[in-house]
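Data card: per-record layout.
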Amino acid sequence: MTATQSPTRNGSRTCLDLTEPEFERRLTAHGHTAAEARHLWDELTAPEPEAPPSSRQLGLGPIIAVYLGLLLVVAASISLLAIYWHDLGSGGVLAIAVTYLTAYLVASEILRRRELLAPADVLEAVAVAWIGLATYAVQELAGVWPEGESASGRVHPGVTAIAVVGIVAALVLLRLRPDPLLLVPIGAGTAVLALDLSELVFGAKLDDLSPRQTVSFLLPLGLAWIATGLWLDVTDRRRVATWAHWVGLALTGMAVVAAVPKTVPGFATIGLLGAVALFFSAFVRHWSFTVIGAMGVLTATTSSLRLLGGIAPLVIAVAGIALIFVGLRWSRWRESIRGAVLARMPERARSFVTRLAA
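The structure for this 358-residue chain is written out next.
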């Protein structure tokens, strides 16, 4: 196959008269493998896909105003329930939950039809919480909501039912709407089930478990979410992968913080894992890894403040200066780190990482 266009420029695009063997030869001369060259050639010579439906892109100021308004609406809804909770009763709570659920879904549909996808996604994700509240009210009305300790003395079946119903509802919505933000309530539901599993396996309530026992299933769950995000990245579903990474990093971070001992070595472990997340962000190219990594380093430094004694201010200052330096240099280092590590990887691993960050 040959690209036969004449070498003229049209805007920022350049048309080249280039054969596949010559293209492969030039890329291999710059350190790329033959497999990478063929993969890139296939991408460049593939027919242009149909453009997806456009959505209205709001500026930073308008989008902040929209999200702040949505936050206030949600806060007003919750405060109404908090004020009149006892007066409403189970039936009233169910009626309020169904009313808000309907209103949120209708509003999200109106916003989606106007191509305002970001606020529509938020409303759909919050709607799952109203489904959970409705599930609680139905259990109360049916007389199956456990009072005090659960029937088994361990797993709270009412909360478990809310988690399961929430996960199913979010999956149904995700099937109907391409809303990656729905991964957040799904992740929350799976976290509840992981805590329930800890109770079952260790035969005690959460209050009686050690921190390590409590998060023993939460940590692998978080890692599984991160692995799911990597798979979504490789299969070209980056928008969904972003939220899978956020969920996985949040669950993994909470599990690590809860499990490690609150000593200088424990906080050093948190800081080291934060640095690993920062390093890994050079390959995944998601801001979530960068943010969580920086937070891990900052948490480790500030949390060990009282344990470091008189040298604490010096350590905090050094860590702060180091973070500033990394932040200023990171965009330059990122590509050099990727290039150096990719050059030492086996071909299959290099191909996977290249697809991961494409």
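Known properties of this structure: Residues 4-12, 50-55 have pLDDT under 50 and may be disordered. DSSP finds 14 helices and four strands in the chain.

See the next section for split statistics.
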